[in-house]
Amino acid sequence: MTEPIHLTSREPVVTGPEMLASLVPPPQFDGATFESYRSDDAYPSQAESKQLLQRFAGRGGPAKKGGFFSRAKKEPDLKPGVYLDGGFGVGKTHLLASIYHAMPARRKYFGSFIEYTALVGALGYKNTVDLLRGSDLLCIDEFELDDPGDTMVMTRLLGELVASGTRLAATSNTPPNALGEGRFAAQDFLREIHAMSDSFETIRIDGTDFRQRALDGKAVVLSDAEYQSAIASAQSVASDDVFGDVVRHLAKVHPSRYIRLIDGVSLVGLRDVHVLTDQSEALRFVAFVDRVYDAQVPIVATGVSLDQVFAEEMLGGGYRKKYLRAISRLNALTHSAQVQSTP
After folding, report:
1. 64-93 b/e (C-beta count within 10 Å ≥ 16 → b)
2. Whole-number average pLDDT of the chain
3. For residue 190, how many other CB atoms are within 10 A of its CB?
4. How does DSSP classify residue 306?
5. Alpha-carbon distance 170 to 99, whole Å?
6. What is the Cα 13 distance to its own chain's centre?
7. Cα–Cα distance, 261 to 7 (Å, whole number)
8. Could you give the CA distance from residue 323 to residue 343 in angstroms, rounded to a whole number?
């Protein structure tokens, strides 16, 4: 048995080049391709979107041949940016990762909106522009529309990069919440990035809505004995911390470094989970959950169920989308821990 480590004892330091090197698709999308994206015949927009995105990535099919006197139909010029607009569970991130893998680019980056804003926060705006300038492609997953300050910084950053020849591909955060809410966010996205809206081609992707499935799920809560057994039987290194200690520790670590907190960890253990009532603590925990989810590290926990970790008033506030996304991910991560422990 390997002794568990404590996240609260880690104080990671990450350099600018290391942060850039980490801007790649999450592990679950390492092998994402256009070929592995299974479009649903019931929703023609899925196949149409895939075809258009293949063109954007430089992977378009051969031009159709006409008659002897006919001319090949000229494809319309593509804008420097594409925005994938669709509901939860239609494969937007899969397609975004497919663009990244397919584009024959020397310098390309893939990250969530939070990762890019964290980069700016850690390195400063000018240094970030200098590091990213000249890149061929920037993929931005889950573009956040609820923070005007961060949106303004990102819009300005993208404007400078497009001017230097960078191409962009983005999705926005469409959460698994009430029917109809956030299903298509294109109008919100274009309104918030008005200075850059002409640079984006909106691609709408219809599909089966998996939101209700995520809503119905509940996070797994373990007894103290079950928790200790899970930590002891972890496949490799597990972390073991009191939930409140982790929340306080997150305030001392820059969000850009959260991913390093779980380096080499195969299971995250959180004891005595309690409801978060402080907005700053809750948002830091959301950012941490995003990194754990990207790394696909299961979570085991005792105390309050993790789908109840955010106070009720928060779920009705301006950051509702972030909290609902985090709840969906926490549900999935606690259930994946159960699968991992099954003989």
Report:
1. eeeeeeeeeeeeeeebbbbbbbbbbebbbb
2. 85
3. 16
4. G
5. 11
6. 22
7. 6
8. 33
Coil, strand or helix: which one is 209? coil
92 touches 212 (CB < 8 A): no
Which two three-digit tokens encode residue 56? 């954007």
Element (H, E) at 329: helix 320-341
Token readout for 200 is 């984006």
pLDDT at residue 246, as a whole number: 98
Q: What is the DSSP string of 132-164?
A: HTT-SEEEEEEE--S-HHHHHHHHHHHHHHHHT
Instruction: Answer whether 17's CB lies under 8 Å from 122's CB.
Output: no
**Do the bridges between strand 265-273 and strand 299-303 make them parallel or antiparallel, or are there none, so unpaired?**
parallel
CA neighbor of 255 nearest in space, from 273, 281, 278, 219: 281
Q: In one letter, which amino acid is 274?
A: H
Residues 6+ apart with CB under 8 A from 124: none
Half-sphere exposure of 152 (CA within 13 A, CB side): 3
What the block records as the tokens of 321 is 């989308």
Residue 184, pLDDT score: 58
* Amino acid letter for position 204: R
Identify each DSSP E strand in the chain by its residue range: 81-86, 108-112, 137-143, 167-172, 200-205, 237-242, 265-273, 299-303
Could you please report the per-residue DSSP string of 95-109?
Answer: HHHHHHHHS--SSEE
Report the C-alpha gap between 231 and 228 in whole angstroms.
5
User: Which residues neighbour 176 within 8 Å (Cβ) at sequence distance 6 or greater?
Assistant: 88, 89, 210, 211, 212, 213, 214, 215, 324, 325, 328
Q: pLDDT by residue (tens digit) across 193-242?
A: 888 889 999 998 888 654 444 445 689 999 999 999 999 999 889 999 99
Residue 221 · residue 54 · CB < 8 Å: no
Task: Report H helices in 125-239.
Answer: 125-132, 148-163, 186-192, 211-216, 224-232
Q: Quick one: three-class SS letters along 271-288?
A: EEECCECCHHHHHHHHHH
